[in-house]
Amino acid sequence: MGSPEIERDEPVTPAGRLFLRPEMDQIINSVFGVKNPLDVEAIKTEIANSMMLKHPRFCSLMVRDPNGREYWRKTQIDIDRHVIVKPDRLDGDDDEDAANDYLADLSVSSPLSADKPLWEIHLLTAHKCAVVRIHHALGDGISLMSLFLACFRRADLPDKIPTFGSEPQTKQRSGGRRNPVWELLTFVCYTLVYAVEFVLRSLWVKDRKTPISGGAGVELWPRKLVTAKFRLDDMKAVKTAIPNAVTTPQFSLITAVILGILTVRNRENDVIIYKRKYVFRRHSGTINDVLFGVISAGLSRYLDNRSPNKLQEGVQITGVAMVNLRKQPGLQEMAEMMESKSGSRWGNKFGMILLPIYYHKALATPLHYVKKAKTMIDKKKRSFEAHFSYNIGYFVMNYVGSKIACLLNYRIVCNTTFTISNVLGPREEITITGNPVTFIRANTMALPHAITMHMVSYAGRADMQILVAKDIVPDPKFLAKCFEEALLEMKEAAEAEATSRS
After folding, report:
1. What is this structure's pTM?
2. Please, how many CA atoms are within 13 Å of residue 414, restricted to the half-sphere of its CB?
3. DSSP string of 439-470?
4. What is the largest CA-CA distance in the chain?
5. Residue 395 DSSP SS3
6. How many CB atoms lie within 10 A of CB 321?
7. Lowest mean pLDDT among 4-13, 35-44, 266-275, 453-462
8. CA 452/CA 455 separation, integer angstroms
9. H or E element: which one contains 413?
10. Per DSSP, what are the bridge partners of residue 62?
11. Which residue, among 113, 201, 176, 130, has the nearest Cα to 388 in the 3D structure?
12. 61-76 per-position pLDDT tens digit
């Protein structure tokens, strides 16, 4: 007879080790609202039988060996220790404010207990919502969203799980002849430029001080959380109003000479004229282009209100954005995500990119914010900045140590101004234990930034959680209103342009 197989401890991935550092300790705090009162026992049963608890990450303790190295060790799950019921009403003007205040308190110095797997579900029964806390070491937003929402079912087809991701898009055709050698050179040049900037941000280069700047230690300051609400149809209307831009590299004269090309830059139209004819693929507008245009316009409006005539026109405010590096967009099939041989490995697989915006008192039309955002993001798409940040972090974690990697990551956050992420949620309305879900929102633990923003789409809507250090941003509801009004003005401008063309 063979001896029974002994399960070995599994090493924590380098990204997971980074998130477990005391300086980071990142937890994803999500909240799900429902239409009817919560059935606590039914929810416990659904979770106990869900695919989530079949995954080893959710059934493992995080342990450390004598050298301080982190591992996952399988254990038994006591569902009652993970599902925490809060029956009493919380302080707040309404259910939304009460839930946001609860999440804001959890975002500062509220770690998960290490004597059980690193996840919890808080049922706020008086407010008909559930708060889900999952440590970032267990996975990234795409992984965790897809796995957890496998517990849910579509409202229109109760026997099916939700579908995720954006609607299928047709490929944009290039405007002419493509030159692969030139395209490779542009990728290399853009990557070099953005990689150098990324490294400098981790050392000493930082944004100029503004009324919304954070800094070292700000992650420990009290927080306030508010929600900005958007309609995806409004974002799509703005997106379609932005003309497809031909991506062209914008390098210095020295770079152009090295590449053997004479360039002339037209600053007004932000294009380059080439002596030789090279045409690159066209990029259509995306929801991310619109979102970043809204962020740019909203922050400019907020700063103009907070400190009129004090900020220099065009001052740079840099954001940090997380980019999904999985090959397949949207929801990954559970079997593929857990299959070690698949191209889509479970866990944290995202890169970090720097997204600069500029303070403007007023632009010609609201759509100019989106056009500028699209131009900048299209350049980022023609680089490997996200892959560079992921791989350099992997290298430092493996060969230098988690302490140095955490320090460099911390300095990047301290030297920039805000964080932004966007996760695609279910396209259809969904239910849990037959109870319709009214909203899905997410945020993370506090960072040295004074403003962090996380948007999740759901059934034609998009809610953005705005977590602020309330001593730096004392009026976050006004900030949320700036974002909401910016999108509405962009939609009106897009409709006006469409009418004028017809």
Report:
1. 0.85
2. 18
3. EEEEEES--SSSEEEEEEEETTEEEEEEEEET
4. 82
5. helix
6. 23
7. 266-275
8. 10
9. helix 402-414
10. 72
11. 201
12. 998 888 878 888 899 9
